[in-house]
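Consider a concrete sample entry:
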Amino acid sequence: MAKVFLVFLLCALTRISSQDDTNAACHGTDGSIYSPDCNTHTAELTKEQMFKNGHMKRFGAHRPPDHIVEELPYMIAPEDFHTLYVSRHKPVVIKGAAKYWPAYTKWTDEYLTEKFGDVTFNMETKDDDKVNLPPSRKLKDFLKVYQEKDLYLVDEVHPGMREDVILPLCLRCEEMSSKFFVSYYWHSSGNTSSSLHIDTDENMLCVIRGSKKAILVSPVYSNDLYADDANLLGVSPVPADKVDLEKFPRVMNVRYHLANMEEGDMLYLPQMWWHQIDSGGGRQQAVALWWKSKPWWKEHGKHAPPVEADAVFEGSKSERKYSFGNALALYETWVNDVAPLAPRLKCESQQARMSEFRFETDKGNNWGEDVGEDWDGQNHGSEEDESEHIDPLCDFDRTNPLNPCPMCMDDDADQRCIRYILDYCQVYQDRGCVVQLPQLLNKISKEEFEYIAAMESPFHS
């Protein structure tokens, strides 16, 4: 009997040690945020198995998630949040943090009707149809019918509502919070489902009422999500509700992360990451805080050396000369390469509410003052770092006489400017390329992108 117990104990200890080794490989000692070793399914699946599991089923059914997104049972300081998560593009859930907001107890339908009932908000449908949008409604009219109708309120947080939202401690830092926050409010009767898409800003999604499940995919898999084939760049053509793996076979290459959110939870969703979010049943309320961010420079500063070899990343690589999918994958690769070089933030601003900050808006003067475009979005480690590196007009290597800045000074969204940058980035390994291309190409149509790719190039090396 003693021998049997000893064998059992040795097996248990071996299993625990193996799990520890797997977790270590998953998180990485070098600060990396992604590895195939993270997969929670110990046996590697064959293409046949993944096809059987995922064909004509919801996105993600082809394989288990690589891992459940890390959950913190406490709020984290902004310096640590930026160093451990933002600079590395590592998603994280902060449990219960929004339960301390006044909004958590105050934002009943009755309260919102009384305080903001005459405010008009934009509407969407629960299936995230971006083409057939319902008309805007006053909040009081929406709250009368949303439990029975296919309506989903998606709009900016009204300035008066921000008084009920406490800016999370992890974002109270002047290097992150200075003049660049955008906020959104979601309200529905539940069972909503988003498309698989990206946002070019950092995102803190805060659940006030209800629950959400989020599937997150690293940008290195952009080509496996057919990013270049989208009618609207930044929105994958792969349907989240029923994936045809005969039409989209590369989806089986995609590995993903899963985040589960309950009332009061906050999810940090890194910029450029593909995500698909489902809400649970019943009344749902959420606030999203977006802020701009750019990765650090490589070791030799802002100088952009010539491109000497094809880029290598985890997912599939497009063979197209101009590829949005490749641009997203290169952005994520750059972020991971420079994360160890980024300086730690020095944060002085604390204990401030959202109402004390300025927010960008397209609602006009009645919604508050517009924020000027005078900040380059870089999260710098100190004022000295900022004065040394910030150039609000150009992210590219200004020492290079072929840099796109003079060409794009007036309008960086001009088609000739975009084509110039596309060709410049074929020749030079410039931080401006990884920063600007995803921003410029996101949400332009497939037809416009094809027109830009076919036009005569203004770039001559």
Confidence is low (pLDDT under 50) at residues 1-36, 370-392. The two ends are 79 Å apart (CA to CA). The CA atoms of residues 360 and 370 lie 5 Å apart. DSSP finds 13 helices and 14 strands in the chain.
